[in-house]
Write a structure and sequence with these properties.
The protein has 139 residues and is mainly α. The chain has helices at 2-41, 43-51, 56-93, 102-129, 132-138. It has five helices and no strands.
Length: 139
């Protein structure tokens, strides 16, 4: 009986892991496309700022401040809401349960923020390392 249960649990675990990986890939692809669109819209401004002497940190702040604000707010709302909904669901299903701790929510938010920062860094390197004269010449 236990072997059968473990077999079914492993099958569901594998299905959920694939779902999470596909979801993560689609989210990162969407974030990258949003950042690319933002960079393309502001490429002339970025180029002029670079020619006038702006460093990489100033350009990074210019491009990423809005995205970091949105991601930070969504992590706070999602973490608090997810924790509350999970507590309500576990209370309604089980009389005694372990529950979800704040450390789990903070670890998940940290992992998400790390992925967001890596995605932003990848797009920012492309925007900063390009030749500004080449872009302005094409305008």
């Amino acid at each position: 009986m236990i072997k059968n249960y473990l077999k079914i649990a492993r099958r569901y675990l594998w299905k959920h892991q694939r779902f999470v990986l596909v979801n993560l890939f689609l989210t990162v692809a969407d974030l990258y496309s949003q950042l690319s669109l933002s960079v393309i819209k502001r490429l002339k401004e970025i180029t002029i700022r670079r020619i006038l002497g702006a460093n990489s940190m100033q350009i990074a702040y210019l491009l990423n401040s809005n995205f970091l604000l949105i991601v930070g707010l969504s992590l706070m709302v999602g973490g608090i809401g997810g924790l509350a909904i999970t507590k309500v669901l576990l209370d309604s299903i089980f009389r005694i349960h372990v529950g979800v701790s704040w450390s789990t929510v903070i670890a998940a938010a940290g992992a998400i923020m790390l992925i967001v920062l890596l995605t932003m860094a990848g797009r920012l390197i492309g925007a900063v390392t390009g030749n500004p004269v080449k872009f302005l010449r094409s305008e």
